[in-house]
Each structure stands twice: as structure tokens, then as C-alpha cells.
Amino acid sequence: MADHFSGPRILFDPASDVADVFAFPSPDRPGCLVLVLDVFPAAAPTALFSDAITYRFRVRPVAPATDRAAFTVGDTEYGLDFTFATPGQIPGSDESVQIGTCTTPSGEQVRFQVGGDTPAEAEGLRIFAGPRLDPFFIDLAGVLAADATQKLAFRPGANNVLEGMNVLSIVVEVDPEVVFGLDCGPLLGVVGETVTSGGRPVRLERMGPEIKNVVLASKSFDPVNSDLEIRDLYNEEDAFAVRPDYAGAYRARFDANLAFFDRLDGELVWPPDDQGTHPLTELLLADFLVVDISKPFAEDSCFEIETALLAGREHTTCGGRAPNDDIVDTLYTLLVGGVDGPRISDGVDQATRPATHDFPYLVAPNPDPPDLMTVMTALLAPPQPEEEAA
């Protein structure tokens, strides 16, 4: 489910659980870049940002590699850190309010109120933080059935398992020339992270496009790490520089699971090389979104830059990922059908309510969201035997 609940450790700390990351040119303010970090999947109406966590965007210039289907990463990094205070009472009211602080690459600090109707603004920045309706959508039952049967199991008109659920969102609109500098771009790699605040930061979770819960989750096909829950290790990694200590384990899982996806339709479109390496392993191991800030906003352009790189052609869109992009269809189409394969649909085409083209883009939260455990229990329950005919 996007990056919701991506590993056992994160289940015990939902405030640090990165649900989704989005990066796209602003349709509202051309020339600006929008970054969205959704955390706390299935957030209750009382959910708050943690005062012990730094919610972080990391942005680096990237360029296509000359010798392989991958991206080289620049040394310059532009970071936006968001921290939150414990809620305090509004004088003369029973209502409490949470205040956040955004620290820019230059060290400037911008304060804002969580859930405020008016976004905070500073030079080159516009900020919103608060509960929003979860923009992600997926037929999780079809994903699980495909994993169990090793065949595509999507059906038209499937149910979105996240229907009506909320998340906590951080939305920041950045003028790259003002906040990052004139020399950034046009291709940028974007990662969203949660790290511990104070002292020596520890990375709790991070996300680029969608890797952990789709490509890395299953242990069934990996002959090297069949008993290893690899996602907690992967969450600790720097997406721009994976440690060599565990790179072999990650590559083994990628090679095995990507081969599984390739055979879901009974056709081989991604033959491995002589060493058994899958053609997508190196590209996806670098788990960051790639967005072209020189191009205008376009929906459903997620992975277009990566696909063009694989095909050896120039990309034509901004890439990145917008909230309404059907990332599940896009990923399955690439993994199963190849670069220009026929579109594969999971049968769910939009979120509970689509995102808008106006800041803060994600729509207002559901005041009465469904209980996650009830939804998951019904989803994972064994099928009931059919009643015998009288």
C-alpha cells in the first residue's frame, strides 16, 4: 500500500510511518515545486505530528548515467526539515493547537500552525501541515492474490482499501531559485524521511517512489534472504547512497522479486543478464523520485523520466509524482509489461476524492474515518464456504 506500514518496526510508531511522497511542478504557481510528505496512515481525528521526530525532504540534482540505466546523484543537497512542538492550549479556549517549524537550506526558520486554514508564507515558500484525506488508492486484495497465485488477479471495479482514511500531510511549495539556488535542476531527486530529533539523528523511514511494499515485501522468491524482513534495513539506508554492507542482500531481493513480477502474465520482457541481474534492479535500488522542474505540471507522468531512460529516448513530461497519479497501474505496467507494454489496471482508478490543482492540493480529512483493523480483518479473512443448495 504505497509505503503505508512498510516493515514491522514502523507498525509500532505510526507518527514516523511515511505513507506517501509526492513531488511535482505547481499547477497553481508555475515555476514552483510542490513537495508532499504524508505520514501516520489511517490517522484518527486526534492524531498529531510527533515532537520527537524531524520530518524531512531531501533534494539533490541528478542526471542520467552515461554507462547504464540509472541516475548519477550530485553532491549538493537541499534539505527542508519540519519539527513540531507539543500541543498547547489557546488562551481563553479549550482548543489546543500544534505549532510547527520549517528549517530551510539556508537555516531560516518559518513557523506555522498545524491545520490552519491560511498557509504560512515566507520568501519562496508556502506551507501547510495537518490532517488530509489519504490520496492513495489500491486494490490490495488483488495484490495479495497475485502474490499467492503468481498470476495477475486484478478485477474491474475493485475496492480501494484506503477508502475514507486520513493521513497527516506536510505540503510545501518551493521556488527553487529562491530556496535552493539558481544552479539547481532541472532534474532533481526527491526523498521524504522521518528521523529522530536531537543528538545523532537516526533514520526511521524514508520513501521515494514506491519500492518497499511492492518490490521488496515478499520473501517467497528470494533464495538468499528467504527468512529476512529486509524492509526495516532498507528504511535505514540513505536513498542517495546505499551502504555497500547490505547492497548484495537488497540486489538479491530485487532480482528475485522483479523476476516474479515479470512472469505474472506468462511472458518474459525483462531477461536477466549473465549474472542473473534484473535490468531494473540498479534503477529501482536508487529509491528517489525524479522530477524535471523545467517542464509544466502533468498528471500521470510518474516514472515517465525513468521509462524514457530505459528506452533510450528523451523524456517529455515533468515526471515526479502527483497525488492523482495511478502509481499502482504505472508500476505493474512497467514491471510486468515492460517499457511500452499494455496498461495494467488494478481496477481502482482514483482516491476517495481526487486531489485538486490548488494549494494545498490534498482535500480535507474525513471527520469519521473507518477503523483500519476492521477493514484489514475483513480483507484478510479466509473466504466463507458457499452454502449448499437446498
List keywords for this structure.
390 residues; alpha+beta; eight-stranded antiparallel β-sheet; five-stranded antiparallel β-sheet; 19% helix; globular
- Mean pLDDT rating: 90
Query: What is Rg?
Result: 21 Å
Beta-strand proportion: 15-25%
Termini gap: 41 Å
The main β sheet shows up as: 8 strands, antiparallel
Distinct helical segment count: 9
How many beta-strand elements?
15
Would you identify the regions where 5 or more consecutive residues have pLDDT less than 50?
A: 386-390
Structural class, by secondary structure, is: alpha+beta
Fold and architecture overview:
The chain has nine helices and 15 strands. It has helices at 140-149, 176-179, 212-216, 231-235, 244-262, 281-285, 304-311, 327-337, 372-380; strands spanning 18-25, 33-39, 53-64, 71-73, 78-84, 88-89, 96-97, 99-103, 109-113, 120-122, 125-133, 166-174, 187-196, 203-207, 289-292. The chain is globular.
Describe the structure concisely:
With 390 residues, the protein is an alpha+beta fold.
Mind sketching the topology for me?
Blueprint: E1 18-25, E2 33-39, E3 53-64, E4 71-73, E5 78-84, E6 88-89, E7 96-97, E8 99-103, E9 109-113, E10 120-122, E11 125-133, H1 140-149, E12 166-174, H2 176-179, E13 187-196, E14 203-207, H3 212-216, H4 231-235, H5 244-262, H6 281-285, E15 289-292, H7 304-311, H8 327-337, H9 372-380
Antiparallel strand pairs: 1-2, 2-12, 3-4, 3-5, 3-13, 5-8, 6-7, 8-9, 10-11, 11-12, 13-14, 13-15
